[in-house]
Amino acid sequence: MSVYDEESASKTITLQDVATAAGVTVGTASKALNGQGKLRQETRERVLTAARQLGFRTRGLPATDHITILLLTSVIHTRFSIPLLTGLEQEVAQYERPVSVLMWRAFNQEHQRQHLEGLLTRPVDGIIFMADDTNLHPPVPLPPEHQQIPHLYVYGRITDHRELCLLPDDEQGGRLATEHLLSQGRREIATITGPLYFEAVHLRARGMRQVLLEHDIPFSETRILTGPWSIEWGYKAAQQLLERDPAVDAIFCGSDEIACGVIEALQASGRRVPEDVSVIGFDNWSSMVYRVRPHITTIDMGLPELGRRAGQHLLAMIEGRETPQGALYQHCTLVVRDSSGVPKHSLSLKDGVQKK
Amino acid sequence: MSVYDEESASKTITLQDVATAAGVTVGTASKALNGQGKLRQETRERVLTAARQLGFRTRGLPATDHITILLLTSVIHTRFSIPLLTGLEQEVAQYERPVSVLMWRAFNQEHQRQHLEGLLTRPVDGIIFMADDTNLHPPVPLPPEHQQIPHLYVYGRITDHRELCLLPDDEQGGRLATEHLLSQGRREIATITGPLYFEAVHLRARGMRQVLLEHDIPFSETRILTGPWSIEWGYKAAQQLLERDPAVDAIFCGSDEIACGVIEALQASGRRVPEDVSVIGFDNWSSMVYRVRPHITTIDMGLPELGRRAGQHLLAMIEGRETPQGALYQHCTLVVRDSSGVPKHSLSLKDGVQKK
Predict the structure, then answer these.
(1) Cβ distance B205 to B190 under 8 Å?
(2) Predicted confidence (pLDDT) per residue in B149-202, tens digit
(3) Is A138 on the interface with B (CB under 8 A)?
(4) Residue A328 falls within a domain, yes or no?
C-alpha cells in the first residue's frame, strides 16, 4: 500500500471541519487552501495550520486546486450516457477550479469490485493519446515531472519520431479497394472522397494511383473529387462526375457516408449498382453500409485491433519492457458486400451492359 | 505538491531495473512485487529490497497490482473512438493484473494543458455512479477505506435512503404526455411501452392513469401493451391494438423507438397520424424522432440537466458542504412536433373524420 492508501483510511475531514477549526467560512477556507482570493496572511496561515493538524490533505480534496471526478458506468456511448456526461462536463467546466471527469466502464459487479479500490487510490500509470484524425500532430506537451510517464498515440501521426503512434494503413487501404475494383473487371475508376486537409484522403488516393499505374491503367486527376465527409457530398459529387465523365464504371468512396450518397445518385440517374457502376466505401461503419441497397462493400481499418495493440504496447512500457518507436501502420481489410461485385445471377446481363 | 509528485519527478525506474538489480526475470520481479505466484521468500524479499532501494514505488507501477490507463481524447463517442476503446478494454481485460481504462475528453489544447498534470497526480476525489436503468439498485459497495469518498447516483434509484440519487420523473412524464393528448381532444388513449421489469414503465403508466382518472375518463388495462424497447414491437403492438380496439384515437409510446414502429403500423393500416390517431413518444432521441413522418412529439427527460446537477451536488460534497439525501426527481418536458397535434390546415378535415 502506498502512503496514500494508509492515510485515506483515516476518518474523513471535510473542508467544513477545517473552516470550523480555523473559525472561518468554508469559502474562506477553500480560498486559503487554494492560495486564491484576497486573504490576510494571518487568516490563510490559520486555515493551513488547521488543515495540517486535522490531516486534511489526506482526504479527497486536491493538494493542487485540481479535482478529479470518476463517472462510473456500464454504458459508455448510449443515448442516455452521452447527454448525461456532456451536461456534467459543461457544469464542472464553469467551476472555480479545474475539474476533470474521468469515465470508466465497469462490465459487471465483479469487474467493478476488482477495480474500484485501485481506481480510487492510484494515479495514472500510462496514457494513450487518441487523435481526432490521422494527420500529423505535434506531441502532447507533458508536465515536466511527468515526461517519463509511459504513453503512446493512436489514430494520429506525431512529428517526433521517438513517439510511438499506431495508425491504420490508409495507403494500403486505397490499394486494397482499387485492386478489388479491378478484380471486378472495372477499368474506368474514379474516387469521391473527403477534404484535402485530411492526410488519409491523400494516402488513399495515392494507393489507388499506384495500383492503376502497376496495371498500366491511365488515370486522370479530374477523377478525384474532394469535399465534405457527408452523404450529401457523395450525392452531389456523383451527379457532377456522371455528367462530365459517363464512362466511369467504378467509384472508390473515401467513406461509407459518401458511398451512401453516391449509390443514391447513381440509382436516381438510372444506373444499376453494381452492374453499371461498382461502388466501394471506407470505414465499415454499420449504420451506413446497411443503410442502402445494395449493401456497401468497404474497407475496414480494424479499429478494435488498433485499440488492442495500443493496450499491449502501453502495458509493455509500464512494465519497462522494450517497445518500438515511430509510426506503426496496421493493415486494412476488405469487406465484400453487394455494391462492388456483380451478383452471379446477373453476370450475363452485366456483360451485355458493360463497356462499349 | 503531494509526496507522489516530488518522487515521480525522479528518473524513471523500470521493473527491468528492479529485476536486474535483484538478479531475477521481469516476470519474477512482477510476481514478487504483486505478492503473486510461488516464489521463495528469500527471492521475494530480494526483489522488494531492490525495489525500495531504487525507489521503484514512486514510478508509475502500482503499489497494489492494479494499473490505471488514461485514454485521452477529444472524441468520446464517435464511430472511431468507441471501437478503439472497446478493443483496448478487451485487451487489458486479459492482462495478468487488473487494468482500468479511464477515458477523459479534452475539449482543446488549453483544456488539456490545464488538466493533464492534475490528472496524472491526483487520485479520484469523488464518484458519480451512473446506472443502466432507473430501477431500484443496491448501493455500490465501496472499499472499506473509501466509505467516506463523496459519491452520488444518477439515473438509478438506490435502496439506501441516505444515498443521493438523481432521477428523471417518469411519473410526471407520463402525466405530461397524457395531458397533452387530452389537450388535443383525444379520449380513447392506449399505451404501447417497454418491458414490465422496468420501473419507468410502471411509473409512466401510473402518471397516465392518474390524469385520466382526474378527468373521469374510463381506462381499460387492456390498453396497456408491454414488450421490448424496439421499433418492431411498436409495429406489432399497434397492429394488435388496432384489431381488437379500433376506437383508439391516441397512443402514448414508452420510447421514441416504439413510436416509430407504431406510426409505421398506423399508416400501413390506412390511418392518418395525427388526424386519426395521435402519437407521442418518450426520450426525445433525435435519431428516432425525425426518422418518420410526421416527426414525433415526445417527452424529454432532460439528461444533460441531470448531468449538470450531478456535477453541482458532487462538487458540493467534495467541498464538504451540506447536500440532500435520497431520491431527487427532475421534471420532464414536452417537445411538440407533428405526430400528436393536428396541423391547422387539416382541422376541418379532422373534425370530419374524428369520432362520429
Answers:
(1) no
(2) 999 999 989 999 999 999 999 999 999 999 999 999 999 999 999 999 999 999
(3) no
(4) no
